[in-house]
């Protein structure tokens, strides 16, 4: 299953980064992705 999922995630990541026009946009996308991963893992740490 990981062999099918990893290329899909990589392609999605490249498309997402390709859609960003500014460094600020990339930062927001990375923060959003990090939040999604944290939520999915059950680790909600507020700083």
Overall description:
Helices cover 79% and strands 0% of the residues. The chain is flat and about 35 Å long. It contains two helices and no strands. The chain has helices spanning 2-19, 23-41. It starts with a helix and ends in a 6-residue tail after the last helix. The protein is mainly alpha-helical and 47 residues long.
Name a few traits of the molecule:
single chain; 47 residues; mainly alpha; 2 helices; 79% helix; 0% strand; flat
Question: What's the topology here?
Answer:
Elements: H1 2-19, H2 23-41
Q: Which sheet architecture does the biggest sheet show?
A: none
H and E order:
HH
Give the CA-based shape: flat
Spans of at least 5 consecutive residues with low confidence: none
Number of helices: 2
Indicate the mean pLDDT.
Answer: 77
Fraction in helix:
over 70%
Q: Which structural class should the secondary elements be placed in?
A: mainly alpha
| Share of residues in strands | under 5%
- Based on DSSP secondary structure assignment, what is the total number of beta strands? 0
Gap between N and C termini, in Å?
A: 35 Å
Radius of gyration: 13 Å
